[in-house]
């Protein structure tokens, strides 16, 4: 499939041929859901923690005699039923990550790219060469109508462009290796440089 290439000023910069295997697939919600869930679970800190019976600070002395009280036969104030006792089966520090086959992850990325292309939310740009001024870049972005956009550059992000873009609300920029399903889907517009298209095709073939 062919797509028009523009530059930051909005002018035409020719055409680019996009690989159907990357940008022409039929998106599947179940695959996209699996990949996004894998990403978010992997990013979850899992640092929640409570103290169990063996960790609370309290005397280990038997609280009252075993027989003759008419009450339950307790031996420790650390028991979960007592105030300030340990928590029973509470959350512990752990990883929420789970495995997902590489082929499914790659397929999810292809489908995310295809979804943007299918919905007309994919833009190919010649390059992101910039003078490094946020005000000038913000004016160009506003003229192009990108309110919530993700820009994917080549192997390395243009340093001056990244510096100018980092304070513009709703604009993210990633190198090709950082392209992922979650970030692509959560933005309204996906912008890829020509170098980024070539790098993505090399990465996913």
UniProtKB/TrEMBL annotation:
Keywords: Ribonucleoprotein, Ribosomal protein, RNA-binding, rRNA-binding
GO molecular function terms listed in the Swiss-Prot or TrEMBL record: rRNA binding; structural constituent of ribosome
UniProt keyword annotation of Ribonucleoprotein present: yes
Listed GO biological process terms: translation
GO CC, one annotated term: ribosome
A Pfam family matched in the record: Ribosomal_L4
Superkingdom of origin: Bacteria
Subunit-structure text: Part of the 50S ribosomal subunit.
Similarity comment: Belongs to the universal ribosomal protein uL4 family.
HAMAP family: Ribosomal_uL4_B (MF_01328_B)
Summary of the function given for this chain in its UniProt record: One of the primary rRNA binding proteins, this protein initially binds near the 5'-end of the 23S rRNA. It is important during the early stages of 50S assembly. It makes multiple contacts with different domains of the 23S rRNA in the assembled 50S subunit and ribosome. Forms part of the polypeptide exit tunnel.
NCBIfam families with a match to the protein in the record: rplD_bact (TIGR03953)
PANTHER family per record: 50S RIBOSOMAL PROTEIN L4, LARGE RIBOSOMAL SUBUNIT PROTEIN UL4M
Designated name of the protein: Large ribosomal subunit protein uL4
């Amino acid at each position: 499939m062919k797509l028009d290439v523009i530059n930051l000023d909005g002018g035409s910069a020719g055409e680019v041929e996009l690989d159907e295997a990357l940008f022409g697939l039929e998106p599947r919600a179940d695959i996209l859901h699996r990949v996004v869930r894998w990403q978010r679970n992997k990013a979850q800190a899992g640092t929640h923690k409570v103290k169990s019976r063996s960790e609370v600070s309290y005397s280990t002395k038997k609280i009252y005699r075993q027989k003759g009280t008419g009450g339950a036969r307790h031996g420790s104030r650390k028991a979960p039923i007592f105030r300030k006792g340990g928590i029973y089966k509470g959350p512990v520090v752990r990883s929420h990550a789970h495995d997902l086959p590489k082929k499914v992850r790659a397929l999810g990325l292809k489908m995310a790219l295809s979804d943007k292309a299918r919905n007309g939310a994919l833009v190919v740009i010649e390059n992101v060469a910039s003078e490094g001024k946020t005000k000038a870049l913000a004016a160009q972005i506003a003229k192009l109508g990108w309110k919530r956009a993700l820009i994917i550059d080549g192997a390395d992000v243009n340093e001056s462009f990244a510096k100018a873009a980092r304070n513009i609300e709703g604009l993210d920029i990633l190198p090709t290796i950082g392209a992922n399903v979650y970030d692509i889907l959560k933005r309204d517009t996906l912008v890829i440089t020509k170098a980024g298209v070539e790098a993505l095709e090399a990465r996913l073939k």
